[in-house]
């Protein structure tokens, strides 16, 4: 088979398509075997009586062999997707619990989530290797998020002109006003002879408390990761004092570990029930100046405790002047999945409810702190 398009369809459809599209040889045959090792176990195929059988068959590949094969046979983006499906869709836990596998694997966010789900299964040697994976992914996320946070907290533009010409400081209003004499009606254009730029001044910041309450239930894993990293990025910024509280049916204050998000994540215990009201009551005890406090509850709002108690606790925070954010997601995609009825009740008593990326949360905090 030499047609690239047909080869791709044959790889997607597996052996059942061989009668129409022909067979595979060489590297494509090995790719087919690697795909079958993973996707051949899909229960939906059995239900529909479809047999997706690769050239080598799943029994001839170990997890280590499979990882070596996909790394050699597929581009990096495809390798990450295959690894993600292996750990999240098919729960192939030895990808993150086998030392031989961990030594070969390329760190990525999907594997970080898998490590946090399975770390309780790991012996000390495997946990040491897994921690290196966590550190690599967290370092990359920190690098990207820290830039967004710093931009949110950068100085505000003043009205004074600046000698330094930077695109971010371009003063469009003043430039347009000063160059109106160069407007040409027939062309409907203003020709700029003299551009103007504004200088920046540092914001005069008053001290605010930011209290992040993070639901540890398994469905909130991505938000747990990004909450830890967001807290670390906010830690030490002028005008902000950050607290990080994790909760299920218990409440654990992790503020002492905020500066080390790797250690913090390795301490999280995913799963269990959910008592959001208890966490909100704990946060209320930390509030020092209500009108300079933001309480961000990161949860899916499926309350396992008293929903009436949760609504009451949020109402009390709002009435004393605190800002309460109900975040159904805090991650790079901000895709919410939550109990809308409970969230609506919290909105009705004055909470801001929605979903944010970490950068949007940082921008929200910076806007309030800079007032």
Automatic annotation (TrEMBL):
<dbReference type="InterPro" id="IPR008912">
    <property type="entry name" value="Uncharacterised_CoxE"/>
</dbReference>
<dbReference type="Pfam" id="PF05762">
    <property type="entry name" value="VWA_CoxE"/>
</dbReference>
<feature type="domain" description="VWFA">
    <location>
        <begin position="207"/>
        <end position="366"/>
    </location>
</feature>
<dbReference type="InterPro" id="IPR036465">
    <property type="entry name" value="vWFA_dom_sf"/>
</dbReference>
<dbReference type="InterPro" id="IPR050458">
    <property type="entry name" value="LolB"/>
</dbReference>
<dbReference type="InterPro" id="IPR002035">
    <property type="entry name" value="VWF_A"/>
</dbReference>
<protein>
    <submittedName>
        <fullName>VWA domain containing CoxE-like protein</fullName>
    </submittedName>
</protein>
């Amino acid at each position: 088979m030499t047609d690239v398009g047909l080869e791709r369809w044959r790889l997607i459809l597996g052996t059942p398509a061989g009668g129409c599209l022909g067979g595979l040889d060489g590297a494509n045959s090995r790719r087919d075997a690697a795909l079958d090792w993973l996707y051949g176990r899909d229960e939906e195929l059995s239900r529909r009586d479809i047999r997706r059988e690769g050239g080598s068959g799943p029994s001839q590949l170990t997890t280590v062999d499979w990882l070596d094969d996909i790394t050699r046979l597929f581009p990096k983006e495809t390798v990450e997707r295959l690894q993600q499906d292996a750990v999240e869709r098919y729960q192939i836990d030895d990808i993150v619990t086998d030392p031989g596998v961990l030594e070969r694997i390329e760190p990525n966010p999907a594997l970080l989530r898998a490590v946090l789900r399975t770390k309780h299964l790991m012996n000390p040697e495997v946990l040491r290797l897994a921690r290196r994976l966590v550190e690599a992914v967290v370092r990359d996320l920190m690098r990207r998020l820290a830039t967004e946070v710093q931009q949110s907290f950068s100085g505000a533009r003043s009205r004074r002109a600046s000698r330094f010409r930077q695109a971010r400081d371009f003063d469009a209003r003043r430039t347009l006003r000063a160059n109106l004499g160069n407007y040409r009606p027939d062309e409907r254009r203003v020709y700029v002879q003299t551009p103007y730029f504004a200088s920046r001044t540092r914001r005069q910041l008053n001290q605010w408390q930011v209290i992040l309450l993070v639901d540890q239930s398994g469905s909130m894993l991505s938000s747990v990761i990004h909450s830890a990293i967001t807290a670390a990025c906010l830690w030490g910024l002028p005008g902000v004092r950050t607290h990080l509280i994790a909760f299920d049916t218990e409440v654990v204050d992790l503020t002492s570990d905020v500066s080390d998000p790797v250690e913090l994540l390795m301490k999280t215990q995913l799963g269990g029930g959910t008592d959001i009201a208890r966490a909100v009551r704990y946060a209320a005890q930390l509030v020092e100046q209500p009108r300079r406090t933001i309480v961000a509850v990161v949860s899916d709002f499926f309350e396992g405790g008293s929903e009436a108690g949760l609504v009451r606790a949020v109402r009390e925070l709002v009435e004393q002047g605190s800002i309460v954010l109900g975040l159904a997601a805090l991650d790079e995609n901000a895709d919410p999945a939550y109990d809308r009825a409970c969230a609506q009740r919290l909105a009705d008593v004055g909470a801001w409810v929605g979903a944010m990326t970490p950068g949007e949360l940082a921008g929200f905090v910076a806007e309030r702190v800079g007032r």
